[in-house]
Amino acid sequence: MVLYNPLRTAITPVLVTPVGGSGNTQFNLTFPDQTIRGDYQLTVGPSVADAAGHFMNQNGNSANGEAADSYTGVMTFAPAAAQTGPGPILFEETFENWPPVPPHWSFQSTPYGGGGLSSWSPRRGANCLALGANGGDTSAGSHSGMAVLAVDLSRQIGQTNLFLEFWISGWVLAVEVSNDAQSWQQILSVAGGPNGYIQYRVELTKLGH
């Protein structure tokens, strides 16, 4: 059994104890307190057997205990929106005060992807946010990572000249915005990546959100 945090780091230790009166069919997991927001992934098996000695069979074929028979579930720890200041810069993220990761950020990682704070080649200061592959199979998007920044812009409803400004250095990436965390609109897609950092500036009040 492995429990990953949103940055694709295994959480240890994870203690498993049966729930009293469940006949060993329900279990509690105990692990250190977590503060990073995003998707937590739990993988169990396949070498887990029932009382009769039958191993797991998640794919429903004739063979038990195969690698494909493990179970994977995801639980999301949603971000808390950051409040804006008086302006003219309503919100600014520099990554210089990480760790800990602020609660207005959340992350999602794939099996060979991840992300987090990096001191490698920041544009300014000592840190930057890095997302990308950790090696292994990079097909079918299995190397990707995603970061979500939640900012409360409700006080800017009806305002004009509201801009999102950011710097990016990368090979394959996309930037999306949303006003409800459900429906997303892509505002930037880069394939091939810039050689060094490039500044982008998007007027949010013209996006229709």
Key terms:
single chain; 209 residues; mainly beta; Jelly Rolls; 2 domains; five-stranded mixed β-sheet; two-stranded antiparallel ribbon; 15 strands; 37% strand; elongated
Task: Describe it.
There is one protein chain. The protein is mainly beta and 209 residues long. The chain folds into 2 domains: 2-77, no CATH class; 82-206, Jelly Rolls (Sandwich). It has strands spanning 2-4, 15-18, 27-30, 37-44, 71-77, 82-83, 105-109, 113-118, 128-133, 145-149, 151-152, 163-168, 172-177, 185-191, 198-203. The strands form 6 sheets. Strands 1, 4, 5, 7 and 10 form a 5-stranded mixed sheet that branches.
Instruction: Provide the succession of SSEs.
Output: EEEEEEEEEEEEEEE
* Beta content: 35-45%
Given the helix and strand composition, which structural class is it?
mainly beta
Low-confidence stretches: 135-141
Which oligomeric form is depicted? single chain
Number of strands: 15
CATH topology name of the largest domain, in short, is: Jelly Rolls
Write the layout of secondary structure elements.
Blueprint (H helix, E strand, L loop, with lengths): L1 E3 L10 E4 L8 E4 L6 E8 L26 E7 L4 E2 L21 E5 L3 E6 L9 E6 L11 E5 L1 E2 L10 E6 L3 E6 L7 E7 L6 E6 L6
Parallel strand pairs: 4-7, 6-11
Antiparallel strand pairs: 1-4, 2-3, 4-5, 7-10, 8-9, 12-15, 13-14
